[in-house]
Amino acid sequence: RYSTLNTLIKLSADPSAINAVRENLGASAKNLIGDKANSPAYQAVFLALNAAVGLWNTIGYAIMCGNGNNTGSGPGSVIFNDQPGQGSTSITCNRYEATGPGKSMSIDEFKKLNEAYQIIQQALKGRDGFPELGGQGTKVDVEYKYECKQNDSGSSINGGVSQFCQAKNGSSSGSNGTSTQTTNQDGVTITTTYNNNKATVKFNITNNAQELLKQAANIMQVLNTQCPLVRSTNDENAAGNGSPWGLSTSGDACTIFRQEFSQVTSMIKNAQEIVAQSKIVSENTQNQNSLDTGKPFNPYTDASFAQSMLANARAQAEMFNLSEQVKKNLEVMQNNNNVNEQLSGFGKGMTNFVSAFLASCKDGGTLSNQGVTDNTWGAGCAYVEQTITSLENSIAHFGTQEQQIQQAENIADTLVNFKSRYNELGNTYN
């Protein structure tokens, strides 16, 4: 302890050493928040986003949803376009069963999930991801559509489904059977046009990590709170189990995919904390003028920069640790061979959910300029495999910068607490 303290106190009184660590801190900050390919933080955020989209692409086609109450054949259908349906680019919510947690997902909850999914897909479609973590977000126009088809006797069941394609609260106007409704949600103006039982929703959002992670969290929030049933592969009118995914689990989606929901949710939370820490790095940039090495340096009076330096170093260290944690969240799924290929009908051995689904895609399941194709369903199709590789490469590339950040943190901490550290040195020596 004496040797370590002695070294840190000597370095903390040496302007050349301080200049060097601040320069290193500036370089590692540029890597973390000013770069994409070589930033472990950026790639970890991207992996969390892709995992959420990939999870929905894998299971969405089988989620039971509708506006029923266990009466007759139900009130009708709401068809959501640009969704990974089985062999199609839409998902139809037409279940007659009662809605709610552990039952069929309600139309309102599916609308929440759909909006979040559309925002992520359209923000990333045809673009090179989202801006680097220290960059400015760009405006993206979002547009999505859905359609309502009510049964003849459907209006008596939970108010039918036509209600979802009609203007409600908010300002509305229109003619010739067309009505437009404008609402404001979280500061975003949303315009919905209704015509012939079809709805077109338009608004714009900021394409940045914080906004997209918020939408990924919304997807998982709907899944984790609603825990919808999945349909059987043999009978769409019967609730199924985990067998289409090679899982021996049964029950609602939260039970079938307990591990997968948990780890993807954790990935998103860790990624959101990465973004929070990136703001601290940006606010405490170390690009100030270097110390004059030709003048004596007094750690007691000349270290006004130390608090900012310490905040920067701690935030960078936390960003790197969280990036590794996102990778570990994924590895929980990778290291669990819980997928029986024979049960799901595509092999004979045991494998893991990441290899079998999240990081896989059928031919034509994903195209760079098209969010959803008719072959997206039942697999991740969200570049998860490529992002895993990019994250691993960026962590390796970060290399010695992790040690440099730790050294900067130690020196900054010594400067901030110089008097107590100096006293501690004397006490340790005695």
Kindly state the number of beta strands.
Answer: 12
Tally the helices: what do you get?
13
The helix/strand class is alpha+beta
Order of helices and strands: HHHEEEEEHEEEEEHHHHEHEHHHH
Uncertain regions spanning at least 5 consecutive residues: none
* Rounded Rg: 26 Å
Q: What's the N-to-C terminus distance?
A: 13 Å
Output mean pLDDT.
92
Total domains? 1
Q: What's the oligomerization state?
A: single chain
Principal-axis shape equals elongated
Q: Largest beta sheet, briefly?
A: 7 strands, antiparallel
Fraction in helix: 40-55%
In terms of DSSP E residues, the strand content is: 15-25%
For the largest beta sheet, what order do the strands appear in spatially?
A: 3-2-6-10-9-8-7
Describe the protein.
This is SabA N-terminal extracellular adhesion domain-containing protein. Residues 1-305 form the SabA N-terminal extracellular adhesion domain. Residues 168-188 are annotated as: Disordered. Residues 169-185 have a biased composition (Low complexity). InterPro entries: SabA_N_adhesion (IPR040838). The protein has 430 residues and is of the alpha+beta class. It has one domain (2-429). Helices cover 46% and strands 15% of the residues. It contains 13 helices and twelve strands. The protein has helices at 2-12, 15-33, 40-59, 107-124, 209-226, 253-256, 258-283, 306-334, 341-344, 353-358, 384-398, 401-416, 418-429, and strands at 65-68, 76-81, 90-93, 95-98, 105-106, 138-150, 171-173, 178-185, 188-195, 198-207, 339-340, 350-351. The strands form three sheets. A seven-stranded antiparallel β-sheet has the order 3-2-6-10-9-8-7, covered by helices on one side. The chain has a three-stranded parallel β-sheet with strand order 4-1-5. It is elongated and about 90 Å long. The model has no long low-confidence stretch (mean pLDDT 92).
